[in-house]
Design goal:
This protein has 955 residues and is α+β, with helices and mostly antiparallel strands. It starts with a helix and ends in a 6-residue tail after the last strand.
Length: 955
């Protein structure tokens, strides 16, 4: 099982003890939490309908919001036919096409007006559909989803178009080293079982998908039946009324009778090794994987294997400290143990810079497994791990959606949350002797598969591996306070603290770009004067305390969370990090290397989408404090010294710039000490950075970044004067949502580029900085800026031609929006969506605190009230005036990330036409529009087109 979820399983198990499953016509039972262990205080109801559908309802005290999760027991595991992989994931996409009663445009419009956040994901063993919305829409959402599940309707054109989108998603994902490693190891480790392929499927099968509509219909008919489906409903609901709604809409669904035989995997007889070549990949990757155990929660094996993973290979392990922190052989090391119904794989990933260090890391992993097989872990360490799991669960379960997420991830096994109770009982019973016994059973040479990956054809000398069996055989003075405090204390057992300084990358001196980020890293991820970072991690571990940082142009946030019972221990540790940083040379070298690697490998090498957005910001802000990347420029980072960090710390982390946010039931004594201690910071006299206006953009420009890429990412935009405190901000925010709501299928651009034409994976617009967009669905707090841009983000396209055409579509539609404005119906629908959706942006305690601090920065009311009040007073005339005053297409900067810069440069300079072709017949109206768009001028003069190699970006 995934060890992150083990923490969840333990606490949910405690919370859900005593639950009984009801079947057929028996009365539904209510499960009460044991009074002596209320880590999860809500009751729940679990009932099975006559047709086999399982329904679980949890009433929570989080107001208004409801989370509906629909786990379906079908994943890539069920794809047993040769040449037919990827269909479980494909139908995750197709389920958004609607039904006869609720065609896609109809149900999308209903959900948008209701502010429904509607998404899905696919795993090895199940597919989950999750929707979050206000409680008054529950009945309608259940009705719509029930109709789609029972009467999914789509045309051949829609089927074939979506197949193109899936192919684009595969190409996008294929840029990730971790995904490529997982694909390689599964293909090598399995001979018969369907775990041989990932949830995306084999590429050749994806390419054949457009012609597989008949098979797709059979696949859906077989697996989308009530006996495979659960409904998990968590939120501000009445359980009896909710069950009645479910029966009304889902009760008539007919039960199926299909079953599938999953091929049995033969026992692996010898260790396996494969090298995966990845052209242009910086550094070298190692993946060591072992065969694990099938899902049997009543046995200790699964829990023990995950405990071993954490004890020996997590960030708190001795091996991590050796390879990453102390010797700095590796820049990354992490584990991944996905929960699978049948025997899956347990993974350890390591990234190194030198080829020779691959063998060093592999041998260190072998020695560690040998240690697990020969030595007994201390009972104290094992107890500390179990304590960490309990408090990690409490810290993370802070919304109805979080509760529903966890329950949905377990319902697919036996469609019964009692497996969580069983899993926790097994975990709690694991002893040090069990750890050693189970390690000896599973971590043997014959069950290991190793993968290396780099730009090299092969790894020299890697075949000289040491046998694991052989290794086993060998065996402060308070002063006046000058900072602001936002105290949002409440009764929550979770305590969140945010030390927000109004400084950041915009304060980096010339020639020292990156010093703000490095200083923040030294505080949050380095030691204090009294303790090493390793010692701090060890002390935080049993209490599941966190302390991290986020760096932006004008904000530097240090955030922490802990259970109220352990707040004093947590504060004693992190206060020393913040107020008395150790500033050790070894921490400095480690963290500087980590930042450099983040730029080279995390951004430039493997994240074309974020790279394009960051290059756009840099291009628009040349000569401005915003010009450099938040983590710095590579040459500046290389030259930074520890004295540079110390100087930045003294100058910028002052009381004048500090805004302290507190929420939760923080002990008054701890709070008083915190306020006293922070007064020891230098007083300072600058409350926030003075940021000049953005450079004036004149004309149309393009930056083309060439790198090894199979697709082309596009971003374009221009500076705007409207920020969150501006009178027209909410109106422009509404326009942005209509035109390109982030990761939403309801947005206009998404419909025109992704949905109708199947060109890419999504198309979005922004008026505020939104980093990490490919990893999350909602913006982070504490990214306040005095200057913003209007930006359009087109997720990677299949070719330069597609990228040019998609850019033309976006420009074409933007020109129409500026000329014609929004219609009254579009305005009303978008306003309704945002009015209902905005509470979801602050649905958890830490986000509430973060947004409250942002409101202080912008000097506005609290975010939800601010937005809703302005939305209520808006008219479509206001919005169209704001469009005319803020949006334009005459002064624009485009960024293209591509594998063929010369071709893209020629296309733009010559205004080359970009005709579209499809794998299916399209409506005549669309074909006519495509002909016009294919030659729609982007209007970028040749002299304004800059081509650069990715190696020179942020250099």
């Amino acid at each position: 099982m995934n060890f992150k979820l083990l923490a969840t399983s333990m606490a949910v198990a405690l919370a859900l003890s005593g639950c009984a499953t009801t079947k057929n016509n028996e009365a539904s039972q209510t499960a009460a939490v044991a009074s002596n262990n209320k880590v999860f205080s809500q009751d729940y109801v679990l009932e099975e309908l006559d047709n086999g559908l399982r329904v679980m309802v949890v009433k929570t005290d989080y107001p208004d919001v409801v989370s509906l999760q629909i786990p379906v027991s079908v994943g890539s595991r069920n794809e047993v036919e040769a040449g037919k992989t990827g269909f479980a994931h494909f139908f995750e996409h197709m389920m958004f096409k609607g039904s006869k009663k609720f065609p896609q445009d109809v149900y999308s419009d209903i959900l948008k007006n209701s502010g429904v956040d509607n998404r899905a994901y696919t795993t090895n063993d199940y597919t989950n559909y999750h929707l979050n919305f206000s409680k008054e829409h529950l009945d309608k959402v259940l009705e719509i989803q029930a109709d789609i599940f029972q009467d999914l309707t789509y045309s051949e054109e829609q089927f074939r178009t979506e197949a193109l989108t899936v192919k684009g998603e595969y190409l996008k994902n294929n840029a990730s080293p971790v995904r490529k490693l997982l694909s390689a190891v599964r293909k090598e480790a399995f001979d018969k079982h369907t775990y041989k392929h990932t949830t995306m499927g084999f590429f050749e099968d994806i390419e054949a998908m457009p012609d597989q509509m008949a098979y797709g219909q059979e696949f859906f008919k077989h697996f989308y039946k009530p006996e495979n489906v659960s409904l998990v409903i968590v939120g501000d609901v009445d359980p009896k009324e909710t069950i009645a709604m479910v029966k009304k809409h889902w009760g008539a669904w007919k039960k199926g009778n299909y079953s599938v035989d999953i091929p049995k995997e033969p026992k692996q007889a010898a260790p396996r090794y494969v090298h995966e070549k990845y052209d242009g990949l910086p550094g070298h990757w190692l993946l060591v994987s072992y065969k694990g155990t099938p899902w049997i929660p009543t046995k200790k094996d699964r829990s023990a294997l995950d405990l071993i993973s954490q004890l020996y290979f997590s960030e708190n392990s001795e091996l991590y400290q050796e390879l990453v922190v102390e010797k700095q052989i590796a820049s990354q090391m992490f584990t991944y143990n996905p929960e699978t119904k049948d025997t899956g794989l347990l993974h350890v990933f390591v990234k190194v810079d030198k080829e020779s260090d691959l063998a060093v890391a592999r041998d260190a992993i072998n020695r560690t497994y040998a240690k697990a097989r020969t030595e007994l872990v201390s009972e104290e360490k094992l107890a500390a791990l179990k304590s960490n799991l309990k408090y990690s669960f409490i810290n993370g379960l802070d919304s109805s959606q979080a509760i529903a997420d966890v329950l949905a991830s377990y319902m697919h096994f036996e469609r019964n949350p009692e497996v969580i109770n069983e899993l926790y009982a097994s975990s709690d019973a694991v002893t040090a002797e069990d750890i050693r016994r189970i390690a000896n059973e599973y971590f043997v040479d014959s069950s290991r598969t190793t993968v290396t990956m780099s730009a090299l054809d092969k790894v020299a000398g890697f075949d000289k591996e040491v046998s694991l069996e052989n290794l086993v055989a060998q065996a402060s003075k308070p002063t006046e306070r000058h900072f602001k405090v936002l105290d949002k204390s409440n009764a929550s057992p979770l305590v969140d603290v945010n030390f927000l300084f109004y400084t950041g990358a915009a304060a980096d001196p010339k020639g020292k770009k990156g010093v703000a980020a490095l200083t923040a890293a030294m505080i949050a991820k380095g030691g204090s004067q009294t303790k090493s970072f390793k010692e701090i991690q060890k002390a935080l571990y049993p209490i599941a305390g966190s302390f991290s940082y986020q760096i932006d142009k004008e904000m530097l946030s240090f955030r922490g969370r802990v259970h109220k019972d352990n707040a004093d221990k947590w504060y004693a540790l992190v206060s020393e990090q913040l107020l008395n940083p150790g500033f050790r040379e070894d921490d400095f070298n480690r963290l500087k290397k980590e930042l450099i690697d983040n730029i080279k490998s995390g951004l430039k090498a493997s994240n074309d989408e974020e790279l394009g957005k960051e290059v756009l910001y840099s291009a628009l802000y040349q000569g401005h404090p915003y010009a450099s990347y938040n983590l710095g420029d590579l040459s500046d980072l290389e030259a930074l010294t520890l004295d540079d960090v110390k100087a930045f710390y003294r100058a910028e982390l002052t009381q004048a710039k500090l805004n302290l946010g507190i929420t939760g039931a923080l002990n008054s004594d701890v709070k008083a000490k915190m306020l006293t201690d922070l007064a020891r910071l230098p007083q300072g006299n600058e409350a926030r950075l003075s940021v000049p206006d953005a450079p004036v953009l004149k004309g149309k420009h393009a930056t083309i970044v060439e790198k090894s890429a199979q697709s082309t990412a596009v971003s374009f935009g221009f500076p705007i004067d409207t920020v969150r405190s501006s009178k027209d901000w909410t109106a422009l925010w509404l326009v942005r949502s209509y035109f390109g709501e982030h990761r939403s299928s309801n947005s206009f651009l998404y419909q025109r580029i992704r949905q109708v034409r199947g060109m890419n994976y999504g198309d979005y617009a922004y008026i505020e900085y939104f980093p990490r967009g490919m990893f999350q669905t909602k913006p982070d707090a504490n990214l306040g800026r005095s200057e913003q841009i209007f930006q359009v983000w087109l997720r990677p396209l299949r070719s330069n031609n597609d990228a040019q055409f998609a850019s033309r579509v976006a420009l074409f539609e933007l020109d129409k929006l500026i000329k014609d404005g929004m219609s009254s119906s579009d305005f009303e629908a978008t306003r309704n969506f945002l009015t209902n959706f905005v509470p979801q942006l602050v649905a958890s305690q830490d986000r509430q605190l973060g947004y409250a601090l942002d409101s202080e920065f912008y000097n506005t009311e609290s975010f939800v009230e601010y937005v809703r009040k302005q939305l209520a007073s808006l008219t479509v005339e206001d919005v169209n005036r704001v469009i005319r005053e803020n949006l334009q297409t005459e002064n624009m900067h485009y960024v293209f990330i591509t594998g063929d810069a010369k071709d893209m440069q020629a296309r733009l300079a010559k205004e080359q036409t970009s005709p579209m072709t499809y794998n299916t017949e399209k409506p005549a109206e669309l074909v006519t529009e495509d002909t016009e768009i294919a030659k729609y001028p982007l209007g970028i003069p040749a002299k304004n087109i800059e081509v650069m190699n990715v190696e020179d970006v942020f250099k």
